[in-house]
Amino acid sequence: MIDGQTRTCGVIGNPIKHTISPLIHNSLAARCGHNLVYVPFLVEEGKVEEAVKGAYALDILGMNVTVPYKSEVIKYLVNVDSLADKIGAVNTLVRTEGGYKGYNTDMSGLKRAMSGEGIIIEGEDIILLGAGGAARAVAYLCAQQKAGAVYMLNRTIEKAQSVADEVNKAFGREVIYPMLLSDYDKLPDKKFLAIQATSVGLEPHDDEVIIEDADFYKKVHTGYDLIYKPFNTRFMKLVVEAGGKAYNGLKMLIYQGIDAYELWNDVRISDEDAEFVFDSIKKKMGL
Ligand code: NAP
User: Fold this and answer.
1) Residues 164-193, mean pLDDT to the nearest whole number
2) By mean pLDDT, which of 104-108, 125-129, 183-187 is the weakest?
3) pLDDT tens readout for residues 208-250
4) Is 30 helix (H, G, I), strand (E, B) or coil?
5) What average pLDDT does the segment 90-106 reach?
């Protein structure tokens, strides 16, 4: 029941209607018996600073940040966790003295989700599609987890080049190789783990996919799409049609949510509670 002591958390982004974060956090609050509600906030372009200051003034406990504000939000925070700062993208704001501190739980969430599926990054050659906030986090994860070569393909090559320079410098070795998206046919002739980290194919554009060419998918043994809505993306279908295994980003989303919830409430969510939340969300989404 909402009463005078209820704490509020939420997510800012644009668009925001597709978010299932309220389901995750409200399920966690119910499961843990916390007096907390979590709501979506649509924030228009140019209004991020006002949104962050307004949230703080309203005593909002914690916020998530989604597309397209994960980099822009950094300048409105009082502190940024060193890993999130390195990544250059923040998806979680934690209330502290004088303002919010930023974290990036996308990376830890993806790592927990992938290892749960038995996907090992260490020593693996990887195709990373995209160079935005999510792809940047994935690039750090791959470097940190000692991936082999990571080919980062992006429509805007300068962005991929800049992420590659930053990550390679941070880890002191050549691990990220930037490539123009349209040069995908120049990839080495072998099988890869492919991580789809662009926003192409996101509902309502279910029929869109970052690369149409069926030949590309012959080089993919495992496809991991960060998109979770639709549940079975066009990218995943093309991977499976070419004989590979495919996963969506729902588990990553749930684990990044759990990590954020743990930071806001200073609790540890058990594996059993995490499974409960995953099952209840699948049910609520009709999956
Ligand atoms: P972002 O920073 O806006 O980056 C978008 C990326 O998509 C960029 O690489 C951009 O390329 C590319 N892109 C967009 N439209 C394109 C088009 N028409 N053709 C080619 N490339 C295009 O977004 P983000 O925060 O990284 O998020 C990316 C995706 O990951 C979203 O779909 C989001 O829902 C998903 N995500 C999932 C989770 C999860 O927990 N499962 C977490 C975070 C994000 P340019 O650089 O050339 O513009």
Assistant:
1) 97
2) 104-108
3) 999 999 999 999 999 999 998 899 999 999 999 999 999 999 9
4) helix
5) 95
CB of 25 closer than 6 angstroms to any ligand 1 atom: no
Please say if the pLDDT value at position 46 is more than 90: yes
Q: Could you tell me which residues are beta bridge partners of residue 94?
A: 62, 101
- Tokens 């909402």: give the residue: 2
CA-70 nearest atom, ligand 1: 25
Which residues does residue 93 pair with via DSSP β-bridges, in sequence order? 63, 102
Residue 121 Cβ < 6 Å to ligand 1: no
Q: What pTM does this model have?
A: 0.85
For residue 62, give the nearest of 108, 11, 98 by alpha carbon.
11
Q: At what angle do helices 157-171 and 133-144 cross, to 10 degrees?
A: 30
Confidence (pLDDT) at 15: 97
Q: Which of 155, 181, 235 has most ligand 1 atoms within 8 Å of its beta carbon, as the pocket-test mutant?
A: 155
Average pLDDT of the residues in 168-184: 97
* Of 282 and 71, the one with more pLDDT: 71
Spatial contact of 235 and 223, defined as CB atoms under 8 Å apart: yes
- Would you say 143 and 150 are in contact if contact means Cβ atoms under 8 Å apart? yes
Can you tell me the distance from the alpha carbon of 206 to that of 245, in angstroms, rounded to the nearest whole number? 19
Please indicate whether residue 70 is annotated as part of the active site: yes
Residue 101 Cα to ligand 1 midpoint, Å, equals 24
C-alpha of residue 40 to centroid of ligand 1, in Å: 20
Task: State the average pLDDT for the chain.
Answer: 95
Whole-angstrom Cα distance, residue 97 to residue 108? Answer: 25
- Compute the distance between CA of residue 262 and CA of residue 140 in angstroms, rounded to an integer: 22
Spatial distance between the Cα atoms of 101 and 213, rounded to a whole number of angstroms: 43
Q: 111 CB less than 6 Å from ligand 1? A: no
- Of residues 97, 99, 102, 98, the one with CA closest to residue 72: 102
